[in-house]
Amino acid sequence: MADLLRVQDLWRSYGGFPAVRGASLRVAAGEVVAVIGPNGAGKTTLFNLITGVLLPDRGRVWFAGADVTRWPAHRRCRAGVGRTFQIANVFPRLSVFDNVHAACLAHARKGFELLRAARRFAVDEARRILQLTGLEAYADRLAGTLSHGDQRILEIALALASRPRLLVLDEPTAGMSPEETISTLQLIARLNREHGLSVLFCEHDMEVVFSTAHRVVVMHQGRTIAEGTPGEVRSNPEVQRAYLGGEEAEAAEARTRTERSGGPVMLDVEGVHAYYGLSHVLFDVSLQVQEGEAVFLLGRNGAGKSTTLKSVVGLVPPRRGSVRYRGHDLTGLSPHQVARLGVGYVPDDRRIFPDLTVLENLEVAARGTGYWTLERVFELFPVLREKRHHRGSHLSGGEQKMLAIARALVGNPDLLLLDEPMEGLAPRLVRVLEERIQQLKAQGLTVLLAEQNVASALRLADRGYVIDDGRIRFEGSVQELRENHEVRRRYLMV
C-alpha cells in the first residue's frame, strides 16, 4: 500500500528542550497505526507537528504525496487531515446537530450566505454523520449535557465533517468507561473497514492499542525507537526497557531490603474518586504512607498517578473519599493550606519560574527555620550553587528537576510528593537524581514517588502500589513486585 502520511526526522524544541528529536513514521492508505510511549515521550507534540498546530525546527511531513511541512493547520485539514484532542473540544451550548452542522458548513465554506439561511445547506450531510457515529438519538440535546464518552464521539463526528482521509486521534478513549471504550473502538474499526479511513492514534491503554492497530510505533524521549506489528512490538527488548527502565539495571540493583517496622501513618488516602470535568479518572483509590518510608506509585502513562498526587495536595479535589495527613482532613483545603501543614509537591512539569534566577526561585519558596536551609539545599545539589545566578529557563532539563525538588525542600516539608522526577532524563542524570533522593531518605524525609521508570522506583522505595486505569491493582513490597510477573506484565509492560 502507498503511504498516505510520511514523517521524516522531525525535531521540535521548547525553550531549548527537545520534545521531539528525530521522529519518523508512516501511515499507509487504509491502515490503523498506534503511537505509544511513556509519559513525556513526545506523542502529542508529534501529533501537533503532523496536523500543523506546531511547525518543526527541522524535518519533513508529506501527506498524499505533497510536502505539507510548512502548511498551517487549516490547510492540512482541507487536504484531508482530521484531528481530535486529548480533551473534548465541542460547543457545549449548541445542540449535537448544530455542532456537526456547523462543522459541515465550515468545510463547505457556507458559514455566511447573503440571500439564503445557512441552515438549509449540508443538513443531510450532518444527519449522515450523526447516524454513522450513533449520535442521531442525541441530535437535539445540548452537547454540554452529554456524557464524557459521547462528547468524545461527538468530537470524532466533528472531525468527520471535514471528510478526512486520515483521522488523527489523541487518546480517544481517555477517561471513558469500559462500555464507552468498546463503543469507540467499534466506531474506529467500522470507519476503517467500511469507509477506508486511515487512522493514526496515540493511547495509553495497551489493550486498546493491541486490539485495534495494524501497526504500532513506539516513542521514547522524543524519538521513535521501534515499529512493527503488535506482536513484534510486545517482544521488542528496547521497548520493554523504555517502559520498565531496563531489566538489566533492575537485576544489577536487586538486593535484600530490610522492611521498615512501620511507623505511624502519615498520609491516608481512602476511597478517593476524582474527575476532570465529566471524565472519571480515579476509582476508589486507597493508599497509605507511613512516617519515614519511601513508597512507590507505579503505572503507565494515563494510569492515574499524577491525579492521585494532585488529589492529595488539593489541585484535583476528590468528589468522594477522604485524604488525611497526620490526622488532618485535607479534603477541601487549597494547595497552599496543604503545603503549610507540611506536604511538599514536585509536579511532573517542574513549574519553576523561568525568568527568576535559581536563588530567587528558592527564596520565594523558603518557609520557616527548619532543617532545609538554602545552604543545605546547595550541599545536596552543588550544581544549583554554581548556577544560583542563572535564570531558570537557562538550566538543563535535569537541573530544572533538581531546582523543583530543592524549591519544595526549602518549604521544609515532612512529606515529599515526587511526580515523575526521572521523566525525560538521560541515564546518567537519573542516577544522580536517585542518589539525591536516597540522601533525602537518609535525612528521614517521607517520600511518595509516582513513576513510570520501574527500575528506578524499585531502587528507591521500600514498598508501594501499582495503579492502572484509575484503580489500585497491586500493593506490596519491592520484592513482592519483582516476583509478581503477572502484575508487571499486565500493568507495567507494553
User: What fraction strand?
Assistant: 25-35%
Helix/strand-derived class?
Answer: alpha/beta
What is the radius of gyration? Answer: 24 Å
Q: Give the terminus-to-terminus CA distance.
A: 27 Å
- Overall residue-averaged pLDDT value: 87
Supply the number of helical segments: 20
Low-confidence stretches: 246-261
Helix content: 25-40%
Major β-sheet annotation:
6 strands, mixed
Widest sheet: strand ordering:
6-7-8-3-9-10
Count of strand segments: 20
So what's the overall shape?
A: globular
Protein model, in words:
With about 500 residues, the protein is an alpha/beta fold. Helices cover about 35% and strands about 25% of the residues. The protein is built from 20 helices and 20 strands. It has helices at about 45-50, 75-80, 95-110, 125-135, 150-160, 180-195, 205-210, 230-235, 235-245, 245-255, 305-315, 335-340, 360-365, 375-380, 380-385, 395-410, 425-440, 455-460, 480-485, 485-490; strands spanning about 5-15, 15-30, 30-35, 60-65, 65, 80-85, 165-170, 200, 215-220, 225-230, 265-275, 280-290, 295-300, 320-325, 330, 345, 415-420, 445-450, 465-470, 470-475. The strands form 4 sheets. The chain has a 6-stranded mixed beta sheet with strand order 6-7-8-3-9-10, with helices on both faces. A 6-stranded mixed beta sheet has the order 16-17-18-13-19-20, with helices on both faces. A hairpin with a 2-residue loop joins strand 4 (about 60-65) and strand 5. It is globular and about 70 Å long. Mean pLDDT is about 85; it is low at about 245-260.
